[in-house]
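pinned: reference chain
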Amino acid sequence: MIFSKDSDHFSKYKNILMSFYILSKHIVISAILIILSTSCFKEQSQVAGKPNILFCISDDQSWIHTSYAGEKAISTPGFDRLAREGIYFSNAFCASPSCSPSRGSIITGQEMWRLGEAAQLFSAVPKELEDLSFPLLLEKEGYFIGYTQKGWAPNDFKVHRWERNPLGRAFNEKKIEPPANKIVSNDYAGNFEQFLKECPADKPFFFWFGSSEPHRAFEQNSGINNGIDPEKIIVPEFLPDVQEVRKDIADYLLEIQWVDQHLQKMINSLEESELLDNTIIIYTSDNGMAFPSAKNNLYEYGIHMPLAIHWPQGIAEGGRIIQDLISLTDLAPTLLELAGITPPEAMTGQPLLNIFNSSSSGRVDPKRGYVFSGKERHTICREGDLPYPQRSARDYQFLYIRNLEPDRWPAGSPDEKSVHGWIYGDIDQSPTMSYLLENQDAKNVNPFFMMATDRRPYEELYDIIKDPYCLYNLADQGIHSEDKMRLSKALDAYLLRTEDPRAVSGQSIWDHFPYYFQNPDGLVPYNKAIE
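pinned: its structure tokens
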């Protein structure tokens, strides 16, 4: 059909064409804007694609004390959620049952005997470990890093002139009223929120939530006063089942519950900020519960740690229980690889990426046949300021321990006070330890006291499946000689491969390192320096 230019039909047709032209122009422009914005989003998401990291580490908590692991006296819904939606590691172990060497091993991704003088409590930290500290390596690759409360401690970083705290800036300003007077007033969750506010929008973050709980001292009866029923508590069989001990454990459990409440708040903050999906949340501890025969011992309750990892965007399938033997030294190289950083060769830990990418439960990695731990000096509590050196190898059934100086007192001298003012100084002062001391001659208490304090043989072997409390040493029983030999050889090979100075030279490098508690000048020997 042909219209005259002056006709009404032509005018209407012209208007339709102009409208279509304008609409098409808008569509083209919109398409271009979408392409450009998508390009910008992709560029932004590449930065955001690096996972955020929230690393939660309690202070002196054995693996069994979460409601997910079966503790009935308290509820830990924060930890339970991480385990239920992420991965729960039922066989995770610390590198040392003493705070600062364990934390140093976590941060540098290597065994405690590779830390030099930092393998001991209240030590200086060698400067070369700065290049292995994974939070600083993350920072170099663009991460915003920080921490609250207890970091790599108690250590002295000034002696060897560290340029930075290995965990970044401290966020400790916000305070809260705690439920007991021995719990610190740090508002952990509030300080995490402050950290998130200050984190630049274009940077991934790493935050270390280092609670001071459940480290001693506890306010006595705080557990009962806050609703914890001591009758629901399962008392470990290396401790006497008496009310004094049950109440002491209740006080300990209250502090775990307090930490978990802050963890829940942190999870909620991430969820509200739409950061949860791409944030790796790790919850673990540095060493076991501060009770006799647990903390500062290579027994199961000293080295077996809680470990749950939650990361919706990066874990192939959540809700799995992994039985593989895991060392906490594995966490540093894992996090570096996930951030696109090649772990330093000095790290002895093995990344967990194959477990993350698997959909299997149970045992996933057949190479994880053993896990190793060790200890040198904890406190100054025996003649000559000497350590009580130990090394151990753990497989899926047996725990093999080697006491390298069996003539020394494992928990400290019975006739020499520690720097903290009590005998058996490697055991934290507590109502439980007081009960053992006061009743040590009683027939029903003496075995518990002797297990915690008496000298030990060169070798110990425990069937963890039958004897999780490490009560029956099988090292001299011929029926288990092959198992003892197998673990002994595995330990020797690993110590040589990872260059443990004691295994390489047969000599100790740790006997005379300064102890910096109340000793700013590093005088040696410490006991003589403070007299």
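why pinned: Residues 61 and 289 are 5 Å apart (CA to CA). Residues 373-529 form one domain.
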